[in-house]
Design goal:
CATH topology of the largest domain: Four Helix Bundle (Hemerythrin (Met), subunit A)
Strand content: under 5%
Domain HTH gntR-type: 1-60
Protein name: FadR family transcriptional regulator
Keywords: DNA-binding, Transcription, Transcription regulation
Shape: elongated
Number of helices: 11
Pfam families: FCD (PF07729), GntR (PF00392)
Low-confidence stretches: none
Order of helices and strands: HHHEEHHHHHHHH
CATH class of the largest domain: Mainly Alpha
Organism: Sphingobacterium micropteri
Largest sheet: 2 strands, antiparallel
Distance between the termini: 40 Å
Number of strands: 2
Length: 202
């Protein structure tokens, strides 16, 4: 419903969306539905949330063409994009991460380890993606962050087809631990080298 109003220019480019209560009343849905719709539209490139100010329309087309490109792309192309994105993210996160970022990254890494140990392949893949997304979230470049978010769904699907056990994730846990330490120590060069090694293995 909100997407339709953006596309039909009821909510114009650069305009501020109505407040949550106003949207709830206008659309006849609950707060959780409004928040989920806004989250999706942010991820799809239609909206930008500015904390403490409001939610703004930034595109009437979104990045749906990017999504379509990912869906049509070859697996080899996806891996190449992943490599380019993650190498740059690894360099930047080592410089820009905060202590709060480190807590989130550490938590994702611990979950990854536990899922690999327990042998839960689906949960392990999700935890691996969450770890790398946490790095992207902390890199200090919102475009890189969203590009990784857009691509990660397809990486996750590819991993689900490639891996039937958590063996490779368990074997690369140490490399991920060392990547975390390099980020913690703000060593961009080491972060980049470790990330390259991880991508070549997983």
């Amino acid at each position: 419903m909100i997407r339709g109003k953006i596309k039909s220019h009821v909510y114009e480019l650069a305009s501020k969306l109505p407040t949550e209560p106003e949207l709830m009343k206008a659309l006849g849905v609950g707060r959780s539905s409004i928040r989920e719709a806004i989250r999706i539209l942010v991820n799809d490139g239609y909206l930008r949330v500015q904390q403490g100010v409001g939610t703004f329309v930034i595109s009437s087309e979104g990045n749906e063409s990017l999504v379509a490109t990912f869906e049509r792309g070859q697996f080899s192309e996806l891996l190449e994009v992943r490599r380019l994105l993650e190498i740059r993210i690894a360099e930047k996160v080592a410089v820009n991460r905060t202590e709060e970022n480190l807590k989130t990254i550490r938590q994702a890494l611990d979950i990854r380890k536990r899922m690999a140990t327990e042998g839960d392949i689906n949960a392990c893949i999700n935890a691996d993606i969450a770890f790398h997304q946490a790095l992207a979230d902390a890199c200090g470049n919102s475009i890189l962050t969203e590009l990784y978010r857009a691509s990660s769904k397809y990486v996750c699907n590819a991993f689900g087809q490639i891996y039937t056990s958590t063996k490779v994730f368990a074997e690369t846990q140490d490399a991920h631990e060392r990547l975390y330490l390099a980020v913690k120590e703000k060593d961009a060069v080491q972060s980049r080298l470790l990330l390259i090694g991880i991508i070549e293995t997983v």
